[in-house]
Specification:
It is built from twelve helices and 13 strands. The protein is of the alpha+beta class. A four-stranded mixed sheet has the order 3-9-8-5. A four-stranded antiparallel sheet has the order 11-12-10-13, with no helix packed on it. The longest helix is centred in the C-terminal third of the chain and has 28 residues. The protein is elongated. 14% of the residues are buried. Pfam families: Sarcoglycan_2, Sarcoglycan_2_C. It is found in: Cell membrane, Sarcolemma; Cell projection, Dendrite; Cytoplasm, Cytoskeleton; Golgi apparatus.
Length: 443
């Protein structure tokens, strides 16, 4: 392998004057050769071992600068490249990470971070995490293995644990060593413990929080759990006061005396602080006492024999169907009797109605019937005042518009001049004067 890379460099050697067969390497060629050999050995020895403690926050940063030299063409000394790189992490042999380990990377131009709190169940068991780096420009990949050897911590777990919610931080910002150190320093200044450890960090989005609006540089928030070996200070206990609890219920900010020590860098929501005292927690484990409700130990399972008697389900079938059917039939008969056999009828209604009401009702019916008959048979002639007597020009007598047997129901209510036969259009004023003369003459 190394020999192949040696000759791939071209002719790295030159003849010298110290004798035939003597070779030397130029400085530029030797630098390139050493960089290539270093890259090869870094690919072979790419495993990293870390030793976190159970119950203590574990943070491992996947630096982009560390993986840039893994992608060809390999950068020269002093050359700066800014390719987008993303990471994929999984437990060896599995598609995902362990349950206690989380991963975050905001953009392909930022470093990735593995973080979490190892549990006591994983102590002594090496956890191998496969880290695959993707160069999004050249589509090259590089794979490293991270071997996590979880060690047992002394006095684990710490008996007094407090969880703070910091509003003005994101999880990757809080995972930075200097920021986390400043926060632990502020907590230690308020709490005054002998031992203080960061137990876990959780993003507010993992707790059901909502994604903030991209305005005013709003943050999603982060939960930070710390543990100590001494009881909570009076400042932290102020959250449990009835006055502060009332203010929290009214969505008001509680009054905390030590808030000024955090407010310079961390904006803490004191209504969401959680104080857990594991020394006062009663163990829920109870010794099992054999008695009522607990079956005795019967040994190994013995399946039933094949000589079981067959069970007749005919009676159960009849009871299941016959009883509801009988109830439904009785209800149907009762309803049929009420609807069909208990009707009063018209005769009984008339017998119970006073005679005067019956007479009024019958008279109304007769009048209605008579009016309807009259509207169907309109045999009455039209008034003479509405009909012309003679033609205004020729003087001829105009016959009536309809005969006696003419059906007047189809006649329009108003007659127009176009409907009248042999009628000539004359001015309105002449028609009025002619009508006046006819009235005066008595025709």
């Amino acid at each position: 392998m190394l020999l192949f890379w040696w000759w791939a460099l071209g002719d790295p050697c030159a003849w010298t004057g110290k004798g035939r067969g003597t070779r030397r390497m130029s400085p530029a060629t030797s630098g390139t050769f050493l960089l290539t050999v270093f890259t090869l050995f870094s690919k072979v020895h790419s495993d990293r071992n870390v030793y976190p403690s159970a119950g203590v926050l574990f943070v491992h940063v996947l630096e982009r600068e560390y993986f840039k030299g893994e992608f060809p063409p390999y950068p020269k000394p002093g050359e700066v490249s800014n390719d987008p790189i993303t990471f994929n992490t999984n437990l060896m042999g599995y598609p995902d990470r362990p349950g206690w380990l989380r991963y975050i990377q905001r953009t392909p131009y930022s470093d990735g971070v593995l973080y979490g709190s190892p549990t006591a169940e994983n102590v002594g068991k090496p956890t191998i995490i496969e880290i695959t780096a993707y160069n999004r420009r050249t589509f090259e990949t590089a794979r490293h293995n991270l071997i996590i050897n979880i060690m047992s911590a002394e006095e684990f777990p710490l008996p007094y644990q407090a969880e703070f919610f910091i509003k003005n931080m994101n999880v990757e910002e809080m995972l930075a060593s200097e920021v986390l150190g400043d926060f632990l320093g502020a907590v230690k200044n308020v709490w005054q413990p002998e031992r203080l450890n960061a137990i876990n960090i959780t993003s507010a989005l993992d707790r059901g929080g909502r994604v903030p609006l991209p305005i005013n540089d709003m943050k999603e928030g982060v939960y930070v759990m710390v543990g100590a070996d001494v009881a909570f200070s009076s400042c932290l206990r102020e959250v449990e006061n009835p006055q502060n609890q009332l203010r929290c219920s009214q969505e008001m900010e509680p009054v905390i005396t030590c808030d000024k020590k955090f407010r310079t860098q961390f904006y803490i929501d004191w209504c969401k602080i959680s104080l857990v005292d594991k020394t006062k927690q009663v163990s829920t484990y109870q010794e099992v006492v054999r008695g009522e409700g607990i079956l005795p130990d019967g040994g190994e399972y013995k399946p039933p024999s094949d000589s079981l008697k067959s069970r007749d389900y005919y009676t159960d079938f009849l009871v299941t169907l016959a009883v509801p059917s009988a109830v439904a039939l009785v209800l149907f008969l009762i309803l049929a009797y009420i609807m069909c056999c208990r009707r009063e009828g018209v005769e009984k209604r008339n017998m119970q109605t006073p005679d005067i009401q019956l007479v009024h009702h019958s008279s109304i019916q007769k009048s209605t019937k008579e009016l309807r008959d009259m509207s169907k048979n309109r045999e009455i002639a039209w008034p003479l005042s509405t009909l012309p007597v003679f033609h205004p020009v020729t003087g001829e007598i105009i016959p009536p518009l309809h005969t006696d047997n003419y059906d007047s129901t189809n006649m329009p209510l108003m007659q127009t001049q176009q409907n009248l036969p042999h009628q000539t259009q004359i001015p309105q004023q002449q028609t009025t004067e002619l009508s006046s003369l006819l009235l005066l003459s008595g025709i």
